[in-house]
Amino acid sequence: MGSTVFWNSLRFVIAVLAQVLICNHINFLGYIDPLVYIYFILLFPFNANRSFFLVAAFILGLTVDIFSDSGGANAAACVIIAYIRPFVLRFSFGISYEHQSVKLENTAFGQRMGYIIILTVIHHFFFFLLEIFNISNILIILRNTLFFSIFTILVITLSITLFSRKNS
Questions:
Q1: What is the reported pLDDT for 168?
Q2: 147 with 134: CB under 8 angstroms?
Q3: Which residues pair with 32 in a beta bridge?
Q4: Lowest mean pLDDT: which of 42-51, 115-124, 134-143?
Q5: Where are its TM segments located (predicted)?
Q6: 32 — phi, psi (to 5°)?
Q7: Where are the domains of the chain?
């Protein structure tokens, strides 16, 4: 258990630092920054205490909000995807998730991508909905959700591919 806490704490710190120090300054096409800190939520152990997970997701979002001056939008979006994650896991991985035998790096590419895409798009939609907070700007919300999601999914998929442990 001690090593799990250590690795999750390290992953938390790396996610925040990567977001705040690197990703918030990319400005691809003048305005698109990948929101890669959700990597922490995507890879958090599936069998962990749900209450602790929700609190950790809130603290993650709040920490990014503090450094990004985004007024709580990150915290709310993180709690939303942390709350619905079990449903998305069940939808994406089916019986494997029910038996707690899912390891993200060992799943089929399509299942993994479905899981990442669903949670990323939901996170980004709620983030921009709360950040813009004006339903008359729904096209801007949808545009930002689409483009930021594509960029975030590419970066997260590349990092999972590059940094996952290879099983020989």
A1: 38
A2: no
A3: 28
A4: 42-51
A5: 12-32, 38-60, 72-93, 113-133, 145-164
A6: -100, 120
A7: 2-163
